[in-house]
Write a structure and sequence with these properties.
The protein is an all-alpha fold. The protein is 76% helix and 0% strand. The protein has one domain.
Length: 294
């Protein structure tokens, strides 16, 4: 059996997808309210864990179990194109899972548990018999949690060696809920292959127009809740910042809804950027509510 090239292996791990969990990890760090003095090595390892390890593992797992769907939707991907030959896609997914757990174990018990949960969900999302992605409601929930909530938790817990504060956990949960809508828009690129292979993504279940409207509401409502909470917590300037970012998203949503199939990728590059900026603003807002841990 031939061995895959380094280029094909890196492509399988999809570096472009690492940004979201790494950003959420950074938001978790910011929400902790703690200085990073003396913790930089642990922080760098944490960044590697959330992006190049756990997220990359989820991409390899997904591509292996989706290789037949990808042969329809995206035949140039490494596995269906043959650039990752034989069962090498599965071997890489297993190897990266073990490596991720080993690295997580060096960062403390809470980080290890969070990483193990994320990896378990990644396998459950793609692999039979569970294969959460078969239904867009469950699959998108799993991905949203692992892309936003868990990395936020890891970032906050890493520098405090304790459970994150209640405000930080609430924000992580709200932005995870909103990310469900982002995942729905991401499914627009594979509607034909999903329908042909029995994957009931929300665009397949609801149709493009209804799925896009649902995604917009799911993204907007948690951000409204964030604005209200920031006001309650006495952070009006941060609330204004998140509100303005949401207002800009709503304007872009109008254009998205005019042609969801064509503009979903465009919105994921524009509106989603505003969404994650709001995450960081809210993270800094709650950081000032907390005492510094010595």
């Amino acid at each position: 059996m031939s061995i895959p090239s380094l280029q094909a292996s890196v492509e399988l791990l999809k570096p472009v997808t690492w940004f979201a969990p790494m950003w959420a990890f950074g938001c978790g760090l910011a929400s902790s309210g703690q200085p990073l003095d003396g913790r930089w090595m642990a922080v760098l390892v944490g960044v590697a864990l959330t992006g190049p390890l756990v997220c990359a593992t989820s991409q390899a797992v997904n591509d292996w179990f989706d290789r037949h769907v990808d042969a329809i939707n995206e035949p140039n991907r490494p596995i269906p194109s043959g650039r990752i030959p034989g069962r090498w896609g599965l071997y890489i997914a297993i190897g990266w899972t073990v490596l991720s757990l080993a690295v997580a174990a060096t960062l403390g018990q809470m980080v290890f548990v969070a990483a193990a949960l994320g990896l378990a969900v990644a396998w459950a999302y793609s692999a039979p018999p569970i294969r959460l992605k078969q239904n867009g409601w469950w699959g998108n929930t799993a991905v949203a949690l692992c892309y936003e909530g868990l990395p936020w938790f890891v970032g906050a817990a890493l520098v405090t060696s304790a459970l994150p504060s209640t405000p930080a956990l609430v924000l992580a949960l709200l932005y995870s809920v909103g990310a469900h809508g982002i995942m729905t828009l991401n499914d627009f690129k594979s509607v034909e292959g999903d329908a042909a292979s029995g994957v009931r993504s929300l665009p397949v279940q609801l149709g493009p127009a209804r799925a896009a409207r649902l995604a917009c509401w799911v993204m907007a409502l948690p951000q409204i809740a964030v604005v209200v909470l920031l006001l309650v917590w006495g952070r009006p300037l941060h609330a204004l910042g998140v509100g303005l970012l949401l207002a800009a998203q709503v304007i872009l949503m109008g254009r998205l809804l005019a042609d969801p199939r064509a503009r979903a990728p465009w919105y994921n590059a524009t509106g989603t950027s505003l969404y994650v900026l709001g995450m960081l603003v809210s993270a800094f807002a709650v950081s000032s509510l907390l005492p510094e841990v010595p």
